[in-house]
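Show me a record, fold above all:
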Amino acid sequence: GALGALGWVYAIREAATSNLRKLVERFGQDWAQGTIVPKVLAMATDPNYLHRMTTLFCINVLSEVCGQEITTKQMLPTVLRMAADAVANVRFNVAKSLQRIGPILDSRWGDVTPLWGQP
């Protein structure tokens, strides 16, 4: 087919995160905080690095629909812990996630980009 294996992985991931967004928009932040967010954050310590990467992709989407408080209090600490991951690709995606969720964070965090140096 036109899509290689990585293309399919990307397509499935995009569809899943799009559905995640729609679910939270439909059922609300409280539902997400009690149902989805704990499951996503639990994957951050999964032995399979692909599952850890999925945590970051989900956090990127969830932060947009769950808002500042849930992102700052629940998701950010997980992302920051993942910065020490043994897999370089996970660490790289932590940097991308911080860039993505940075504007959503509580202003007391300020600009998170200095944590990663200049682009």
In short: The longest helix spans residues 5-27. The two ends are 36 Å apart (CA to CA).
